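Record 1 of the preview.
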Amino acid sequence: METNKSRGIYIYIYIYVQSVSKLTKPGFKVVVEKEAGLNAHFSDADYEAAGASVVSSDDVWKNSDIVMKVIFTIVLIYYL
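->
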């Protein structure tokens, strides 16, 4: 998770490394876009160690039956 409290912006990643093993255990193939976890401090190696394949954005779209994509999420928190 990347935070910028001065602007009240929080950026989240929606597939955590811990979730990868939960999906691969029953037999799902998990493909993660390169550097998808950097803002959450997850490396590509973290995802690979959990069982995911780390590929380019084009390969995600070409070789996936189901795609979970987050375009942009902002949670604004106003400090009073």
